Amino acid sequence: MNEFPQVLTIAGSDSDGSAGMQADLHTFFIRKTYGMSVLVAAVAGNSFGIHAAETLPLPFIEKQFEVLADDFQVRASKTGMLSDADLITTVVNAYKTYNFGPLVVDPVITTKHGAQLLADSAFQALKTKLLPLAEVATPNFFEAQLLTGRTINSEADQREAARDIQKFGVKNVVIKGWHNQENQSEVADYVLLANGSDFWLRHSYFDTTHINGTGDTLSATIAAEMAKGTDVATAIKIGHDVTKAAIENEIAVGHQFGPINHWAAANI
To answer: Which of 3, 31, 214, 225 is the most exposed place for a label (fewest CB within 10 A)?
Structure first.
């Protein structure tokens, strides 16, 4: 019983299916794992934007953790956007209480364009309470700058930012590279592992408006692979390849900012 790889997303529901919990579950499916969820929030959104959002009651969130732990063997977990300090504290306390495997933290602090999404209290809770639990953290370029107070102007800066984030207690750090829609040919993601070794994951820049769920898919793939017993470095590389394939093979869904194509990455 309970031998099939089970993986958990702790995230919000995105009603158009392009990001959040839905993108995580799409990813768990194509990585041949059984996905579960602790739902923390819900947004009413479509390809034009988010139009309303609600956070679920904290006791209900706690109950989801409790009942999953009573029955299943979750082998790895990941977090998505956690919008306020009380919610982050609730998730942290529950994660410490139950054995849900190694944790991947996708620190959703900013949009892909650098606009900050979290209030200062939530930002501090993420830094001091959630990140120290992370087996892997996957900040984007802007989030890495906010977390470290460092301006990243070069690959050397990106390496130093990863070392700064590791000092929070994060074991393995992935800093997703700068995405600039003008005159960019390559994106460089930097990986710093717990043992001090590091490497770059480079790919051609693909100009598209169908990028919803990219961060979710990367972090969800890493979690799914760890649930299957894949080592962290290989899990990160697979996450990079899955996300790249899903971006480069566009799917005709929505009118403006659409989802990436998980089906295109199903055979990686």
So the answer is: 3
Which candidate, 119, 120, 121, 166, places its Cα nearest to that of 139? Answer: 166
The residue range of the domain holding 13 is: 6-265
The answer to whether 106 and 80 are in contact (CB under 8 A) is yes
Can you read off the two tokens belonging to residue 242?
């899955």
Compute the C-alpha angle 205/208/214, nearest 5°: 75
Least confident stretch, 22-26, 96-100, 133-137, 207-211: 207-211
Q: In this structure, what are the phi and psi dihedrals at residue 180, rounded to the nearest 5 degrees? A: -120, 125
- Report the C-alpha gap between 191 and 236 in whole angstroms: 8
Write the single-letter amino acid at 209: T
Beta bridge partners of 77: 8, 103
What CATH number is given to the structural domain containing 137? 3.40.1190.20
HEC sequence for 95-121: HHHCCCCCEEECCCCECCCCCECCCHH
Is 55 strand, coil or helix?
strand
Which pLDDT score is estimated for 119? Answer: 82
Cβ atoms of 33 and 6 within 8 Å: the answer is yes
Q: Residue 180: which pLDDT band, with cuts at 50, 70 and 90?
A: low
Cβ-based burial of 151 (10 A; exposed 0-12, middle 13-18, buried ≥19) = exposed
The greatest distance separating any two alpha carbons of the chain, rounded to the nearest whole angstrom, comes to 53
- Count up the domains in the chain and report the number: 1
User: How far is CA 239 from each of CA 18, 114, 133, 135, rounded to the nearest angstrom?
Assistant: 17, 23, 20, 15
Please count the helices (runs of H) and the strands (runs of E) in the chain: 8, 9
Q: How far apart are CA 122 and CA 129, in angstroms?
A: 10
